[in-house]
Design goal:
31% helix, five-stranded antiparallel beta sheet, globular, 106 residues
């Protein structure tokens, strides 16, 4: 089983147990990025997390967006990079860029 299958299995198990879950997926990277495209993270409304989309540097911001997506049901495409003012705040000042798609698991 691949890592992404394991994360999706974990997310499905959480959902089956009644948790509200969002899945974040790296869709694009450029330059220095800790995780490749296709990397995933599952987040529950209760705060559980599995997987990784950034090796820690932007995961707090992604987890916050996941909570918003769980509440609203509206998917989000997050864009973090050195030209973005949040890049320094979230720790992505290493010269890379990453896009992360966040969606609620229904």
């Amino acid at each position: 089983m691949s890592l992404s299958e394991d994360i999706l299995s974990t997310a499905a198990a959480w959902r089956a147990a009644g948790e509200q879950v969002a899945i974040a997926t790296v869709t694009e990277t450029w330059g220095s990025s800790p995780r490749p495209a296709g990397s995933q993270m599952a987040v529950t409304k209760s705060g559980r997390m599995a997987g990784s989309v950034s090796g820690g540097c932007i995961e707090g911001a992604v987890a916050d967006a996941a909570m918003q997506t769980i509440e609203s049901g509206t998917p989000q495409l997050l864009d973090f990079g050195v030209s973005h003012e949040k890049a320094w705040e979230v720790g992505l000042a290493c010269g890379g860029k990453v896009k992360v798609f966040v969606e609620r698991l229904n």
